[in-house]
Amino acid sequence: MPVLQLTLSLGGGHPAGWRHPRAASPASPVEVLTEAARLAEDAGFDLVALADALSTEESGFPFALESFSLAAFLAARTSRIGLAATADPRFHAPYTLARLSASLDHIAHGRSAMAVARLDDEATAANHGGGLAHGTEPERAEEALDVVTKLWDSWEDEAFVRDKATGRFVDGTRIHEVRHEGRFHRVHGPLNVARPPQGWPVLQAADGEHDELRDLAVGGPDGDGSAERRLLPTIPILGDTREAARDAYRELNALIELDEPDGRGPARTLAGVVRPGGRNAAALSAVAGVDLTRHPLDRSLGRRVLDALAPEGQAIVERARGRTGLDDGSLTLRDIVCDFVVGPAAFVGTPEEFVADARTRLAAPGAVGLDVHPPVLTESLERFAAQVLPMLRDAAPPAGATLRDRLGLARPANRWAPQEAAA
Amino acid sequence: MSRQLHFSLMFWATGTHPAGWRHPAAKADGAYDPEFIHRVTQLVERAKFDMLFLGDKLSTDTSLQSTNPAQMSRLEPFTIAASLAAVTERIGIVATANPTYYDPYTLARLTATLDHLSAGRAAWNLVTGADPHAAANYSRDAHWDSPRRYEWASECLDVVRRLWDSWPDEPFTAASDGTRSIAGGAPEPLRHRGPNFGVAGALNVPRPPQGQVVLLHAGTSEQSKELAAREADVVFTAQPTLQAAQEFYRAVKTRAAAYGRSGDEITIMPGLLPIVGRTTAEAVALFDELNELLLLDPERPADLGRELADSSVTHFRAAPQRNLATVSEFLGVDLTGNPLRAPVDPSVRDRTHDRGRALFDRITAVTRRTLDGPRRITHIDLIHHFAPSHALIVGDPVEVADHIERWFTERGADGFNVFPALVPGAVEAFVELVIPELQRRGLFRTEYEGATLRDHLGLARPERAVDAATAVRVAR
Description:
Chain A is α/β, with parallel strands linked by helices.
């Protein structure tokens, strides 16, 4: 049975989901997020990943609650579902990150995960000038993660004695200094939080585009580096008929606010910096191989331009055609840019078509499940739960005590524990 | 409405008495039992406490197991605070954070998020010191001195306050067809460039429900008193006597006036360690019982540190010793070799100095034992009471309420941060025995009047500060 993850972002899984008239009001973030997490739990999702950012520039929607706090809150409002908090270790002190993640795992009774993200370099770094030392080097994240796992291990599971009769509270021989001295970090340790119930929270790695989540392989206990366990991202845009789904998709795309071609957003949009994957014809041009910035947005491209596109550009147009159902004569440049902004994860069709497509994709090596980004909260999540989930899963998922149990992942041995304890 | 007391519960899962966790009425493993922490918080919420206080340290030390096991290992405050927000409705939740080891963007997110999760019940307790070993966990060579820490903390707080104000209270607007937009477009970026921090953009959390999260501060240095007078909504302090508390109270409120603030805008809450029994004798017996559970240190120096040598951890400090050698050194009178249960010779009081005589007075105040009465002070009493602490009151409900009322009406306190010796036993005793007595006297609320922590403290919700740096870009 596929692993099912709900990626929960207040703005919805579609870039303009929050703008939709039927979207749950983002002005009540706690209510909206709690309702979605409970709905996902009742529907049988294995875990909910809480999207997060350290700037307003990460997506088309500017707000995200701090995800470790949100996950701790949701742990008290749910009872079975896994809860993944998001962190970019380049912008956290490892001691703080280890405390947050270990505490969350205690609070959630072993239902937690940490999704390691690479956030927008430019915008995030600009919010973290001075202060603690930060930088955008990927090696910084690797070293920080290494320190975090050492800190998680710094208290052995048996470190607490708590013997009222003798007054012995801890066994000092089972508490370990970390003494890490690396290129970016010096951390003495030990951590001041007990080892997480899962040993280590489940580790996930997300790439920079947030379109692929997989268990961390490098140095982690969840894989040996070759056997990746990948969740396939999907934005399900569903309708009772394919035509209805396409209508819904076009309706949503019409709400996307595009950046000006020079990268400066109009006053009402939020994207304030130029970055790869921007929301405009310039960003599309860079991929399509033809300068489209002077083409009127509300006109179709015409045969000459279409023929001049690089293969990648042709594929993008083909994808937009398929999802919108528009032919070349009515498909405008705006339609293509919007489809490009939505990205490769969207699926437009009926629930039956979605399931058939998902089954095909899940047959690929390493693909263990789906990472579902409902385009409009809470409506699309309800629809997915009611119309798709029953077809994807033929039995209720096993309700394991911890997220590792539920996902079939072993509890990591403690690097400092005696061999017999690790066996 | 007459002036009302304010109460906070200092939550140390294993109690604030070093041996509190060993008592039969204590839970020894509560630090990692979230449902237990929920229950204790709900208990003081039912008693209408203003807030639950979550302290913090950024390092650990196994020697804390004999002096303060609750601080050795515990949950990170913002995460357990968020969990508490989910299971309570009215009580304020205080999370401690030392800005020396945070970035302002992260701190603004943690505090603003807690305020959203709790619907306006969050407070940030800003501390900077008392944790010199944290530097070694944060890639620093040394613990900074107080002026450096406060310079950093002041800039950090300034940036955090502006980040909280990044967005208008209603950031969204809807067109006639229901399509949502950001009201007025993106906010003007912060563009902060200071000596310690550079923060370019707006916060990615909506403005906190309280506008500005309630700020708590505790500290003893000059810089700390300035920061408290200028910025704090609540000041925590350790004051052993009423006279000292009154001086502190006056000083902070006078300083606040220099910043154009009314004294009423600052709630001063000294720590209070109440040992309550149904009768005085019961309270004294409980306190004796707790002290009997303290582990003493060996007298001979060669034996010191045996416990530490047992540890694989080598950099830990030795804790202050609980033995007659330490007491003798303090008093200037050699008492080593005396049987611990034997009464202390009354002449010792004359042979020691004023501070030594104050120790005898303190012991008499809490144990009701004297050097020459029918119930005598023994040598072990000296060991047990040697370490000074927050104001300690041992007594029946009326005696404890009298103490609280006196400090309150004589302007040594606006309220108290209650340190329960053992959890949950001492929390239950205070809530069941003392709170009703204070309510009968009209000194403490019987219902919450408002929904937010600012409401409990009688503080107005601040308007968003819109200046050149934080102004909303008006739609063109």
